[in-house]
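Hi R.,

As promised, here are both runs. First protein below:
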Amino acid sequence: MIVTTEQGELDGLRDLDSQVIGAVYDRYYPDVYRYVRYRIGDEHAAEDIASDVFVRLLEASQKGRGPQTNLKAWLLGTASHIVTDHHRRNYRRPTDELTENMLDPLALPVDEFNHREQSRAVRSALKELTPEQQHVLALRFGEGYSLEETAAVMHKNVNAVKALQFRALASLQRGIEEVTHE
């Protein structure tokens, strides 16, 4: 079965058509992965979570509770919930992260320190945002979505997305300033 429309994809998922399932995975996995990677900053965890989103899609489709209209919005909404759960678990059991450039022999110690401090400040400030604020920033800047696309995924109107984005960026800026002035 060759599917060219989103409604065809939704019908194929409900019928558990293996070709449609493969096509949906191939089409949407990169978007889901980028979104998750932007939100959590861990490549391996992002791969696991993105895969889990598609497992949940299949489980929901088998039970007749899969997406009814907007497949991409359902996938990203599910990814957002899983990321929130991931953050909750890590908040309870924090771990230190090793960066790829940690042992860069060409980096000056001062440059390396400044880079780490900036990264730490941004990560710390992002964690202080509400899940909805993190979601809007991930869609707008991580995924490069337009305001209209973001509004559709978040089930909000464009003006509400603009206001949410404005508040999120203002909170992020305040959070970075607080962290750097500690």
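And here is the second one, sequence first, then its structure tokens:
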Amino acid sequence: MKGAIQVKNFRCIHISRALTSLALIFFALTLVGCVTRPVNNGAIEPTPRHEYLIGPGDNLNISVWRNADISTSVPVRPDGNITIPLVEDMPAAGKTSSQLARDIEKTLSKYIQDPIVTIIVTGFVGPYSEQIRVIGQASKPQALPYRNNMTILDVVIAVGGITEFAAGNRTRLIRNYNGQQQEFIVRLDDLVKDGDISANIEMRPGDIMVIPESMF
């Protein structure tokens, strides 16, 4: 009888330890799902091709075929609108140059027969929601207009590099993807100081790069 009780107790202890181990494994997996992910090759989905959208601060060269008196160069106002001869307060921000040209043609058709409008964007700024923002230990923290095929290295060059106090390998990249915020660790020191190209990744519109200060 005593031997049976010992066997039973041994089985209970073994089962209890097994359940404890499973609980620890589940807890560890839960933590892994919550931490910031490092960026490696293939860790981030390829950036889809992006068509430039007009933003406040952009300059637009607007040409109306056979109507030189209407053709003009104008800035996009802070409210996102533009004004040209015969067209007042036309929304421009958030549109492609082709979309804006068609909208202007529609308005001008009230005064001109079959107007043909061509728009060339200069002085690129882009919509605020698509600008790349760099804060922290960059030599020149700033917001940059997004461009197709823009990479981390392009951004670092544009902001004049990182300071001597920067903890480059702890740089965080904050991204809004499909309505959800994602956060990745970027290895700036490996990229800039060691030339590790695997640390160079493509940017996406609206990315925020936070370069922390070193603890030492």
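A quick note on the second one: The domain at 37-50+128-211 is CATH 3.10.560.10 (Outer membrane lipoprotein wza fold like). Let me know what you think.

Best,
J.
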